[in-house]
Protein: Transcriptional regulator, HxlR family
Organism: Pedobacter westerhofensis
Amino acid sequence: MGCKIAEFQQEQKKRIRSVQDSMDVLNGKWKIAIISSICCFGTRRFSDILNDVEGISNRMLSKELKELEVNQLITRTVLATQPITVQYELTEHGDTLQTIISNLTDWGQVHRQKITGK
Amino acid sequence: MGCKIAEFQQEQKKRIRSVQDSMDVLNGKWKIAIISSICCFGTRRFSDILNDVEGISNRMLSKELKELEVNQLITRTVLATQPITVQYELTEHGDTLQTIISNLTDWGQVHRQKITGK
DNA sequence: CTGAATCCAGATGGATACTG
DNA sequence: CAGTATCCATCTGGATTCAG
């Protein structure tokens, strides 16, 4: 007790673990892009996202969506249209990612210029 | 021209690409944790980070640090101590990730409670 | 101490074809 | 349309050993 430095380091380790927790959820080549797509349109269908996120395959989209659903970031709703369509939506919890997404968008733009644009 | 919907969708695709750009840089199991470690201490040595980021191997740390350096997020300084030590520091550009790191830390904490804590 | 080198299992992800 | 199934190459990352 009283060892401020050790305390600080413990605090820091906790923080790092928290960041890791976030990244575990948002990991995978496409997850953030998918959330970003759904987020901006409010509600989005499978084929729409497939089109929004350039380069993703339906196999990957399906897999990533499932993981996001398990982590309670999005909800899946089957619509009784012909043929069937499926809607994805952010949960309240998923919605809390908005700030991060927005920041990442801005940062990505600046970074691209920094690296390539010179 | 005048097709507002198509315009909006193009804008959206750009945004998604920007998020992808960010994630490309921050990808890898440990990158954010490493940045987080350096960020909080201002300057950090190899062995310190190795200790901060639980579970990482020196092989991975070395690799991820190199990538971060290439992307100009950190700088590497060799100190002429005996034995040699190496210091890592955020660049000005890397520093701009602070907000994102901070948000991810907070979000990760909330998320963990949401999922496990229940 | 700070890596680089090697070995290797398992995860990731693309292409393609198929189903309800 | 919204997936699932299969095949397969590549990537990831851990363990361990070695080097300056």
